[in-house]
Structure formats: structure tokens, C-alpha cells
Amino acid sequence: xxxxxxxxxxxxxxxxxxxxxxxxxxxxxxxxxxxxxxxxxxxxxxxxxxxxxxxxxxxxxxxxxxxxxxxxxxxxxxxxxxxxxxxxxxxxxxxxxxxxxxxxxxxxxxxxxxxxxxxxxxxxxxxxxxxxxxxxxxxxxxxxxxxxxxxxxxxxxxxxxxxxxxxxxxxxxxxxxxxxxxxxxxxxxxxxxxxxxxxxxxxxxxxxxxxxxxxxxxxxxxxxxxxxxxxxxxxxxxxxxxxxxxxxxxxxxxxxxxxxxxxxxxxxxxxxxxxxxxxxxxxxxxxxxxxxxxxxxxxxxxxxxxx
Length: 307
Hints:
By secondary structure, this protein is an all-beta fold. 0% of the residues lie in helices and 51% in strands. The protein has strands at 6-13, 20-28, 34-42, 45-50, 55-57, 70-78, 84-92, 95-102, 105-111, 117-122, 132-139, 144-149, 152-153, 156-161, 176-177, 180-181, 186-187, 191-201, 204-209, 218-219, 229-232, 235-238, 243-244, 248-251, 256-261, 269-278, 281-282, 289-292.
């Protein structure tokens, strides 16, 4: 009679800024062919925003506002809200810079000092209460735009009004994470959790707020530019949700198995475990191993995604 199998976890290999391969081995198949899978999660903390009065103030970011022609915005988010809620936003002159959600769709919008603006919005909605990794890449010179969710480019609609924008100045008002700073008014407050926010100017990392401290009222900037954020009301929450991979089948004793992950945050530590099952049932999850993804260096993919 078969017994429940057991797994021997190994290590993560082929680790890049947003991907890794998890490896394990069948220690004992229990006497019957079995299947194996993994589960993984980010370690540490995130910030939870209540949608009422919570946000993080990261300042005006030097000359970032004057150089909005090309860049990248990145974060991890989780929300169930269908309201209009800002992930980040600020204003300058008659212009603005904002990433927000509307009915679960992701919207990115930049307006310049001459009131020309471009926004692009996802067709799909992402307010499912699960963690998602978001990357927004723009180049207003090439009129080229891309939004990636969990590592995959998603369908977007692009709208120009007197645009694309091209006249920018430094931010007059502090950039808020978890809200929009609309000419010194706190608006569109985020309802959900955020972590690992990054801003790039062209290909240069300007700000990186991991928001994983777990205590205190400061969201430290890990970019080296000292744009530490002041937490206004948002609370720390542990990131304790596992993501499970699909089952690999046809395994016997000493067989290796693996799973490729492609939706990871760069510069972030992950924990993972392995599990087996056969006709007798599922094994316990193995002990944990850890790996840290590489810090991404941003190179624009355009004109590959030119519209």
C-alpha cells in the first residue's frame, strides 16, 4: 500500500530582477507516482491604507517633475475597491502626474504646463483583493506606452488631449503615495495595501520605497537619494499570503521538479516551500528556503511597444 510521499527542498536558481526557478526533489515517493508543487510569498511588511486619510509624503523629488518625458513607475498593490483611488500623484504649475485606479482598471495620466495630457488605462480590472505587481513604462517622445501586471503586458487604451505632454517643471507639491496631492489637497485616497514603489527618470532610479520596515512612521528610500517618506496614518501589515504553483506530475523517488516564477518584485526577499501528493494524500509543506531577486536596471523596451 502506498504511503504519503515526502519532498526535499533545494534552492532557487536563475534568479533575475523579476523571475526565479524553484527547485526540489522527491525524497520518497511513498510507493506510487506522485505530483509536486511549490508555494511562495514575499517576506516582511507592507503598508495598509484605509481610503479615508492615509498616505505617504515623499516630497517633491528634486528635478523628477521636470523630466517626465520618459520613465517608469512600479509597485505592488492589493485592493478590493471599485472607487477612484490613487496609487501616487502630484502636481506642478498647470500640470499633473498620477497613477490611479477606477473601477479596478489602472489609469496613468500626465498633464503638462500647457494643459496637454495623455492617459492610458487598462481594459482589465485588478481589484480582486489579491496582490499584483504593476509596471508602467512611458515615452512621450515616441508616444509609446506599456502597462505590465504580474509580468505580462495588458491591453490598454490611450487618450491624448492636445498631447502628448512635453512642457514640464519640478513638482510644486509633494508627491503622495496612497493618495493624489492635487494642488495641496489630499484626494483619491487609496483603499488597500501597497509595497515596493519605484520611480525611474529615464533609466535612472529616483525613488524606491520598499515600505517593509514594519514599524515607525518613515518609509525609507532605498534608491540612495534620501527621499524618505513620512507616513500619515497608514498602518503596517504582514505580507503572509502564499501563492501556489501548479502541480508537476509523474514523479518518483529522487526525481527533481521545479517551477518558474515570472511575476516577482525586484530587490525583494521571498520564502518558498515544496509539497508532494499521491493517491494516499498530500504531504506537509517542507521547511522554508529563501532567495532575493536582483535590483532591476531599467532599460526602455520602446519602440517595441509603440502604439
